[in-house]
Design brief:
Blueprint lengths: L1 E18 L2 E11 L15 E5 L3 H5 L13 E11 L5 E10 L7
Antiparallel strand pairs: 1-2, 1-4, 2-3, 4-5
Length: 106
Amino acid sequence: MKMQNKAVLHGIKTSKGDYEGRPFDSTTFHLSVDIAASQSGESIGVVTRPFKFGDSTEFQKWAHLKNAWPLGGVMCDCEFDVVAGADNSVKLTLLGIKPSATGKGA
């Protein structure tokens, strides 16, 4: 099931190269997630979860923010694919991401 949601983007990392003759090219978006439902124990502060989405060209769409990244991150509109697991878990796959219309940090 597809779902639209807002999330705070805290960082982006791109990886491109060749490892043992096998090329790789990906971008990882680090988004805030609700950890209360999925973790045991206690936690304080912001925790991010990595979501792979696209290749290094996705990173280039955000590169203009490299020297002006807001301390609190960037509020984004995200599209996720939500799949229920056999053990009552939920698997989220990032299908799309763009800065929210406000264009301001979180």
